[in-house]
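Record format v2
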Amino acid sequence: MKLNLLPTYVSKEGQAKKAVIISILLFVASLAAMLALNTISQQTLAAKKAEANELRPRAEEVVTIANNADTVIGSAVGIVRNVNLAKEMVKHNGAYPALYDYAKPYIPSFYRVSSMSVAPLAGSDVQLTLTGYLKTSQEYADLMLALLRIPKATSVTRAGFQTSDQFVPALTPDDQSGRPIRVGDQPIPDDPVERLEYFIARGGTTGYTGVGGFGSGPETTARGAMPEYSTVTVTVTFPFEYPSVNPVYRGLQAPDPTATLRSSGAAPSTSVPAGLGGPSGAPSLPPTGVSGPGQGSAVD
Amino acid sequence: MKNLNFWTIIIVGIALSLIPLAFGFFTNWMPNMKEAGYYDTYIEQLNTEVNKRPQAIKKQEEAVRLVEQKASEWRNVVARRTPPKGVQAGGIDLGVNAWQLAIDSRRFRNNIQRAVNAQVRKGGIEVVTGPLVPFPDESATTILANYFNYPAISFPVVVFNFGQITVSGTYDQILANVRSYANMPNYLAVASGLRLDGTSPRLTGTYSLSVVGFIRGDKIFSSVPEGGAGGAAGGFGAGGPGAGFRGGPPAGIGGPPAGFGGPGGPPSGFAGPGSGAGRGAPPAPSGGGRPSAANEDE
């Protein structure tokens, strides 16, 4: 058995020395760590800055290139506008003829057209209006079906047909058989004599009627509806994209030269601000060599 | 000291060591690394931009190609669809003084009327209601603005909306007539709203007609002091900004090869105020070389 006979302060002093040494070492280590933190962070930052400084000119160059492209485009806005206007004007001259040629095959032969017009709608839609002459209600119905054959036609309207078809009337004391008559006609009597007088009374025309301008006047005169024909107006709405593959014409919107040209903005004032010209009250002479024709600023 | 516990001293040592460590961390490491982080983001953005270089170059090339294409198209338009340069050739020269311009404009107007008359007959139709070209102002002070739309439009241009034109002919003739406006020489014309009436084969066609004439040239004479003798602004030839076209259609990139020479010489015997360089300058190689097709001899 060993006994520690040394006083207690002897062992504490030794421990304190160790602790102090350790603490000093810790402190020195922390100082070294501080320096390391400082150095490493600054080096990292400097490296990043250097990399950024290296990239910045290249990025600026790219931005300059991109801006230059915009500048190039911007400098040609006026020309582009005028070229587009010219192309649209030239192209539009063929639009209406193309549309009439396009729609004409769908107009049935029994419908004699006296007027064709077309109005542009929104987008590529157009509304074709036809006025012409028809005789029967069957033609009136068939006309609608024929016009709906126009590709992608969305709607048709019709107006003006006056029916001349016969109908079977109700029986009356004079007409116990109900012979077909036309609208507005009186019932046809059953009695043969009265029936003869009835038909004699209907025959009012004694000569050439000249209805619709047929058979008279110069050949250039427009002809109207023949007897028993009706003047019928139809409209057809359809998108006009012609030809169907790679269409040249899309609708009938006409270019507006005045509005387009004015959208380019106004030129600078041609008047001279007061005070820059000659002396007040005197007809000023042109300062030779300053202005005058032939010395205008360069066209930009 | 000797009375202090071992661990007490260690703890004090650690505490003291934390001071420089904390100082280094909070005053150097953390802000520097944060700034470095910002730089990382910045570098990433820069890299993004740098990586766009091929696209930017392509965009620039595309822009140049597009502009060259449009310029080429515009040169074609100018060559075929603008009035010739100079009054003698059937066009107009805006480089003369406004009093002379008032005279020249009437000749120009008549030449336009001749061109329109020749055009409106195309297709073999008979003209029922033909277009009448408006007469220019007599006033030298307003003719440029009223007839040539300058400076309301940034370059001088004549625009005529003729309203309804009526022609008579067969279906094919009328359609050919309308189509022919696409080839009207020296002017841009647009016929719209065609309506056909009548009984075949003799039909009546009605349409609206607009004609545009871009004026060639690179100079406009400054305003004249007519009616402004008592005014404060002398004005005449004072080098105002209106001494040239700004951004006019024949100008800019790829402007027309023609029409950029001098105005082709002053009217005979008239030097004009401020007659300096530019007057009588030789025309451009192809400028003003158009043969006089419709010259006004009045």
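Chain B touches chain A through 142 residues (CB under 8 Å).
Confidence is low (pLDDT under 50) at residues 228-298 of chain B.
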